[in-house]
Every structure is written in C-alpha cells, then in structure tokens.
Amino acid sequence: MRQETEIPNADKRSERTKAAILRAARERFGAHGYERTTIRAVASDAGIDPSMVMRYFGNKAQLFDAALAIDLLLPDLTSVPADEIARTLVRHFLERWEGDLAGDALLVLLRSAVTNEHAGARMHEIFAAQVAPALAAVLGPELAARRAGLVSAQLLGLGLTRYLLRLPAVTALTPDEIEDGLAPAIRAVLEPK
Amino acid sequence: MRQETEIPNADKRSERTKAAILRAARERFGAHGYERTTIRAVASDAGIDPSMVMRYFGNKAQLFDAALAIDLLLPDLTSVPADEIARTLVRHFLERWEGDLAGDALLVLLRSAVTNEHAGARMHEIFAAQVAPALAAVLGPELAARRAGLVSAQLLGLGLTRYLLRLPAVTALTPDEIEDGLAPAIRAVLEPK
DNA sequence: GTCTATAATTCGATAGAC
DNA sequence: GTCTATCGAATTATAGAC
Fold this sequence. Notes:
The structure is a homodimer of 193-residue chains.
Chain A: H1 10-36, H2 39-46, H3 50-57, H4 60-67, H5 85-98, H6 100-115, H7 117-139, H8 141-164, H9 168-171, H10 175-190
The first copy, chain A, binds a DNA duplex (18 and 18 nucleotides) through residues 7, 10, 13-14, 17, 38-40, 48-52, 54-55, 59-60.
C-alpha cells in the first residue's frame, strides 16, 4: 500500500523533472567532463533547484552513473559479408556519434573515461560486454583476442579526434570520406595476411 | 663533495626547484588531468611549499601551460622507404609513449586536451605544426590534407586506449604485436587504391 | 627563498519551511 | 515536491614574517 504518492500528476511531474535533470547532466558531463560539471549548473540547465538533483539522484557520483548508461547497439556481424564488416563498423559508429541522442551519451562516456576512474571502468565493461563478443562471433575467439583491442583503438581514435578534440583535419572530412578512408584500415586489422 | 662556488648570475637552487615543480606537475597533470590536480599536491610531490609554485609560475593555468611544451620529435619521413612509413610512425609513437620522460608530457597533453580547452588548442597547434607537415612532405599536400587527420586518429586512438583508458584488450598486446597489427592499417590509409 | 597564516571562492550536501 | 538558507570542506591566491 503506497501512502505518500497519491497526489494526482505527482508521478508524471517527478518523472519529467528527473528526465530533464538527466538530459542536462548528460549535456554537461559530455561537454566538460566529471570534475568541471557542477550540480548547480545541471540544475540551472534543467530549470530546477540544485537540491532536487540530490533528492532524485542522491549525490553527484550517482547522477554521473545514471548518465553513463549506454548501449552501443552493434548490429549482428554474423549476417554481414566478411569483407563488409569493417565498413559496417565504421558506418555504425559514425551514425551513432553524429546522431544527437546517442552522441551525448557516447560523449559522456568517452570524455569522462579519460579523467574519471569510474567512467573508465564503465568503458572497460562496455567494450568487454559489447564489442569483444561481436568481433569474436565473426573472427573466432583467438584472432579476436589479438585484434579487438586494435579495432577499438581505431574506432575510439576517430571519436576522440572528431568529436572530442575536434581536430580540424578530421572534422573537415565528410562521413563518406571517413568511411572510405578508414574501412580499409580496419579491414587490414581484421584480416591479417 | 659539494662546494659553494660563486657563479656570477645563475641561481642553481631556484632552477632546481623550478625543475622539480615542473616534473611533479607533469606527473600529476598526466595522471589526473587539469581539474583534479591541485597546486598543493604538486608542491607536496616536489617537496616544497605551495606558495613556491605561485612564485615561480604565477598561477595554475600558467603552470599547466609550462607542462604542455612538447616536441613529437618526428623523424624525417622523406628518408624512409614509402612502404616503411606506416611502420616507422607506429614504432616512433610507441617508443615515445613507452619512454617515461616523453610519455609523461604526451600523457599530459592528451589527457588534458580532452577536458581542457586550452590544452585542446595546444593539441591542434602541435598536430598542425608537426604531424601535418611531416605527412605532407611524403604524401604531397592534397593527399595529406585528406589523410593526415585519419592517421592522427589512428595514432591517438592507440595512445588513448593503451595509455589513458588502459583497455585490457590493448594493454595485453606487446609493442611488436601492435606494430605488426597497426602498421598495415595505417599503410591502408596512406596508400589509397 | 621559503614558509605561515589567512582571505576569498566555490561546491557538495543537509535541514527545514511551505 | 520545490525552494531557501546554510554548513563544512577544499582550493586558489595573497600578504607578510623570517
């Protein structure tokens, strides 16, 4: 029996507030990293009081943790022709990064993982749970063990230089140019001679 | 045997203190990024008082700036056989990163560039002034313009995953395995079909 | 040249009114 | 559920003694 949530619309309002906080948090964490985003700023962006953030998420670390939830949504590589796997991967990550919604979450993860231990651990988990198995399914376990890391390095290197550092030499390229330039490179890693 | 000799215009003590501060600063900035390193901690590492840091470097931002100075020491690629350029680049960065002295400075730059605007601008400068010209000298200006960014993405992706994130799938590889795995990939970017 | 003491901020977190 | 007020801790930066 619930005693204190009988107020009509209370659920809706709190859910909306919570979602607004989370959205603002992802934006801030993604733009400035963990240390430089303040609860005060997140609350201000969400148009509410800082104490509400504490009420809904407990503390800064738990808010951060909530903002880190992410699914790479990798496609099933076993149904992709072998010589198209590299291109499929590049295109998938480009689309994920260019799309605002997932982009924010991915930016949070990558930017924070560099300076925050907890986010770094999350990054390890996500790659171990999502990228490594996807590659193992098509490369076999022993080749994947030696190559999954290098593939990750290349895909994250793209994200790093294009979306975090925004190196002009990388942001100047179109998605098609990146796909054409990087797919053969990743193919070279996936198919050692 | 130490002896007080009179040197006209040099103060060895202050230079040594300054160097100790800079060394400690690079270590802290490299390990934890800009926001999380405190002047107090740097001073403590250097075995001196926090106010000395202010005396020698003015403020935290200027100390940071001093710690960012770096020369990639890229070899002259024009004297390297065309099909060895990729491998030369991979090996050079691996050596730079694995070596403690340069590794610290590179770590500072890369880790900080992700969350600090000033460091990001420095990263842009360094790649524009050192990497881009080295590639332009061997690829020609128009091909270099389209490929220098992707090569940078690959090399920085390696640094990111191996030395910053320390993804197990990447740290588990030996330098030789990385060289053998990544050189063909970079060659694929440098020599489009 | 080096250190003590402290001013001035900023921020995370709590208590409590409505 | 939301906000006001504030505490306590940490940090940059300054002033000045020795």
